Amino acid sequence: MQGDQRAHAAVRLEGVSITYRLPDGRRYPAVSATDLAVASGEFVALVGPTGCGKSTLLNVVAGLVAPSTGRVLIDGDPLSGINHRAGYLFQQEALFPWKTALANVALGLEVKGVPRGEARAKAERWLARVGLGAFADRYPHQLSGGQKKRVGLAQVLAREPSILLMDEPFGPLDAQTRAIMGELLLELWSAEKKAVLFVTHDLEEAIALADRVLIMSAGPEARIIGDHRVPIARPRDIHEVRLTPAFLEIHRALWHELRAEVLKGYARSEGTTDRLP
Amino acid sequence: MRARATLLFWQVLVFVLFLAGWHFGTATGVLDPFFFSRPLDVLERTWRDFASGVIWRHLWITLVETILAFVLGSIGGVLAGFWLARRELLSAIFQPYLKAINAMPRVVLAPIFALWFGLGIWSKVALGVTLVFFIVFFAVYQGVREVNPVLVANARMLGMNERQMLRHLYMPAALSWMFASLHAAVGFALVGAVVGEYLGSAAGLGYRIQQAEGSFDVTGVFSGMLVLAVFVLVIDALVSFVERRLLVWRPQAAVTGIEA
Asked: Which domains does chain B have, with CATH numbers?
């Protein structure tokens, strides 16, 4: 893999496998031995069919799930417990509903010990950066889906993590909002380059955003079966880039790989009824 | 606004029709005034009680008992709910006992409380506490155990320790559930106070009703019930007001209306 050439990748998985114990006592091998590396400042997208374990892999990097075998290295150090160098943007609603947008963003700083006034001032700047300067006093239920994602992004980035983990963050949004959020993400990312691991099932989104696209096979025993560099220069215009020959070419190649896995995934899920825990 | 006015009109109309039926029923002799009293008599008696001032002392006593039962029961319920929700084993041990005590009709405890705490306000407060405690306890217990797992994961990723999670996540979640049970809790605090008074005391609204019943004074009973009903509506309005102030972060639809 190209990312491996760096001595200390921001994120490195070595032989990580994940096995669940199902409620009936059987074991379900979700992800089989996987190696993966994300260089610092690199934007990597992880694409795979639904239920293939890509989110689980992300949770392992976050330290929310312990791998069954193998190890996780963060900047060369083995990870135990929560990964405090990473920020995590969830697919689902993860804002604290009883706090205003401003308090939500400031919260991540306050728990770190940043004095209240300073945390608030910084949170205000971050809300302005995601375009929500005027919405600081709103509660989450008063914001639209896209606005909530912006607050979430500010909440994560305000803590200045060196690694950004994203689990289909724009999945629930409509197509236009997704494109705009993608642009915002690239704009923020190019200002201070963090290592990004971006999980999605949307191949177009993956190619438009990432430096490298990894393809995962259908579960059980999912693994990474493809690793492709995206040969498109930055800065990119997310909308325009989809119409360029380079994009269409890589999209065709990756879709060919992905399609086979998606079909395999369908075939398997028809045979069994159990969904992942 | 128009819809609200219409609603109010119909609500008042129901009350007026009820009073009119009662009035003409007793006036024409279909209803015996000895057993059913007369609406005008009830209003007149109530007015006299307030004008002469005898009722105020009883209202005050019932109010104090209700507030004490509510506050003590809520504090106990919040603490116990929190504690057991965070401790799997303890909650498993206590579960059957809590269910058994909660299923017991509290009225049977009233004589025991009268023995333990005397005939003053504390036996009534105790009765109210046994009612309020369980409502708040189950609400908080549920609230803490069913905190959104994504929020828990986010809190951990934001670097919160156990104490910070308690303060920023579990406490607000539990409090919002507690407020959802607030109307019921206040109502039961009042029920505890009045039932306690009814079964043995020397003051309070329950005592007034019991006294009137003892002398076949149906007008007095209905007058006591009327005062009690208005009292409940006023307290419930206060609770709604406090709720609206404290739960501003909630979507409007979730704020409950009157429940009397």
From this structure: 42-254 (1.10.3720.10)
